[in-house]
TrEMBL record:
GO terms for biological process: auxin biosynthetic process. Its cofactor is FAD. Keywords: Auxin biosynthesis, FAD, Flavoprotein, Monooxygenase, NADP, Oxidoreductase, Pyruvate. Pfam families: FMO-like (PF00743). Pathway: Plant hormone metabolism; auxin biosynthesis. This is Flavin-containing monooxygenase. It comes from Cucumis melo var. makuwa (Oriental melon). Belongs to the FMO family. It comes from the Eukaryota.
Length: 410
């Protein structure tokens, strides 16, 4: 590594083009792994490395850790799973935190985590290109600091921790650009207070769409929920235990199809027939569907009761929007004051990582499914792309740290 670095610096020194540059691009050699992203996944893998005595460098495009949680989540958000399934490696949540920590509690936990492990990301540093250089045997990572200073890093190990939720998904809906009321993605939604008394169309029926509808109800808005596809709605808790925790426990002893059948039976007893209200269940069970496609079932936190009473109205897909109205697939037309897009997020990896083997160019996700998508070629790793939340990220973080430690020993 040192020999190559000296050769590179020598070439730059004697390059006539480089001499004519007023301010040549700084080149920085990273002795350990370089991590792109300072969200929970990036922090987790940096902490796992540090536990093994391996220093890393974290680059983060925002001005803080966990920017998605800081700036792109609504006020009432809580962790949907019990805290023991969401803690990062080597540091549990404080014992006085509730079972389902609030957004602010989770952020305070992440800050304490970064402080405890003395993790200091380089903020306002956007990676614009990363590629493997076969000639020198390094990853070349070009970044822009503070929107103006270009810096190029060289590293042996590159860890992609930008996650599944890097960019908002904006659906292609005819007329969306001409709708005259507010059109906001849930990444910009904070509270239903600004929609008080308004008729709001919420497009998307995942956990975010369902919870935004509930929040709108609490501020006396009239939400209409668009459900284009089938969806599993499960009680948040069953028999006094979290549904997720109960599922994990049962899966230790029973096949997935039996656990799915049990969950659906209890959900039918507790919620009734959801299809009567326009919420049709997929043909696969909730756990099987999650395992096959990564699609998470909705854990109901009170929204379904509002649907039952009619305070939240369910509509099928939207065909188009006009200046103040929406036309649905059944031909009906209704006026609305605002539209909220609960249409989720996507990976942005293909926009900056020039690599075709590990990540799919279409969706920016690892081509290999969990648990095999964490490792690529030439020291390339991925953390936070398991479609299994913080638990999956922690599993991959530990694997990556173990693998890099093994590389250093050999």
């Amino acid at each position: 590594m040192d020999d190559y670095w000296k050769e590179l610096q020598g070439k730059r020194l004697h390059d006539p083009l480089s001499k004519n540059q007023v301010s040549p691009i700084p080149h920085i050699l990273v002795q350990g792994p370089l991590i792109v992203g300072a969200g929970p996944s990036g922090l987790a893998v940096a902490a796992c490395l540090k536990q093994k005595g391996i220093q890393s460098l974290i680059l983060e495009r925002a001005e803080c850790i966990a920017s998605l949680w800081q700036f792109k989540t609504y006020d009432r958000l809580r962790l949907h799973l019990p805290k023991q399934f969401c803690q990062l490696p080597f540091m549990p949540f404080p014992s006085h935190f509730p079972t389902y920590p609030t957004k602010q509690q989770f952020l305070s936990y992440l800050k304490a985590y970064a402080d405890y492990f003395k993790l200091k990301p380089v903020f306002n540093c956007t990676v614009i290109r990363a590629e493997w250089d076969e000639g020198c045997g390094f990853w070349k990572v070009k970044s822009v600091r503070d929107q103006k200073v270009v810096v190029e890093y060289f590293c042996k190990w590159l860890i992609v921790a930008t996650g599944e939720n890097a960019e908002e998904i904006i659906p292609q809906i005819e007329g969306l650009e001409i709708f005259e009321g507010p059109v906001v993605h849930t990444s910009s939604y904070k509270t239903g207070e600004e929609f008080h008394g308004k008729k709001v169309l919420v497009i998307g029926c995942g956990n975010s769409g369902m919870e935004v509808c509930l929040d709108l109800c609490n501020f006396n808005a009239s939400p209409y929920l668009v459900v284009r596809n089938s969806v599993h709605i499960l009680p948040h808790e069953i028999l006094g235990r979290s549904t997720f925790g109960l599922s994990m426990c049962l899966l230790r002893w029973l096949p997935m199809r039996i656990v799915d059948h049990f969950l659906l039976l209890l959900s039918r007893l507790m919620l009734g027939d959801t299809s009567k209200l326009g919420l049709h269940r997929p043909k696969f069970g909730p756990l099987q569907l999650k395992n096959l496609s990564g699609k998470t079932p909705v854990l109901d936190v009170g929204t379904f009761a509002k649907i039952k009473t009619g305070k939240i109205k369910v509509r099928s897909g939207v065909t188009r929007l006009t200046h103040r109205a929406a036309e649905f697939v059944d031909g009906s037309v209704e006026n609305f004051d605002a539209v909220i897009l609960a249409t989720g997020y996507k990976s942005n990896v293909p926009s900056w990582l020039k690599e075709r083997h590990m990540f799919d160019e279409k969706d920016g996700m690892p081509r290999k499914e969990f648990p095999n998508g964490w490792k690529g070629e030439y020291g390339l790793y991925a953390v936070g792309f398991t479609k299994r939340g913080l638990l999956g990220a922690s599993i991959d973080a530990k694997r990556i740290a173990d693998d890099i430690e093994l590389c250093l020993e050999n």
